[in-house]
Amino acid sequence: MRDLASLDAELLAVDWLSNHHELTAVLGGAGRVGARNAPPYPRIRITQIPGGSSPGWRWLGTFNLQVEALGDLDRTTARPALRLAFTTAVKALHQLTARPAFPGQPVVTFVQALSTGGWLPEPTGQGRYVGVVALTAHPAAS
To answer: Would you say the pTM of this structure is higher than 0.90?
Structure first.
């Protein structure tokens, strides 16, 4: 059995969202989900942030993920479009609990939006919708 240190919640979320058809359509194409603020835009940025819990750090843990919908650098992406991208990403993360268990893959048991999201542009003025999601999972058995 693997321990919790082998589970990368950020990578799990990025992989799931990158292959989510509804989110890809809302964003306007593939290659728009990752951990960096980089073109093409609009895009979803996922980063693991402090918080969550993992009693004993062995089997089950909750990880806090910041979910951001980022607009074009020239500020032309409409605010409603970013809100739609954000809400679609959060909805898609909730669908992780229904994902079939695959050998060697972590199992997501619970997803909770800790904030409903809000408009908070980057310091550069780039449009951004941001919120936090808690993802509870355990690593796959060997």
So the answer is: yes
Beta bridge partners of 46: 67
- Please report the DSSP string for the chain in residue order: ---GGG--HHHHHHHHHHT-HHHHHHHTSSS-EESS--SSSSEEEEEEEEEEE-GGGSS-EEEEEEEEEE--TTS-S-HHHHHHHHHHHHHHHHGGGGSPP-TTS-EEEEEEESS--EE---TT---EEEEEEEEEEEPPP-
Decide: 73 and 127 in contact? Cβ < 8 Å. Answer: no
pLDDT in tens, 14-61: 999 999 999 999 999 999 999 999 999 999 999 999 887 766 556 788
- State both tokens at 13: 């979320």
Domains of the chain: 4-138 (3.30.2000.30)
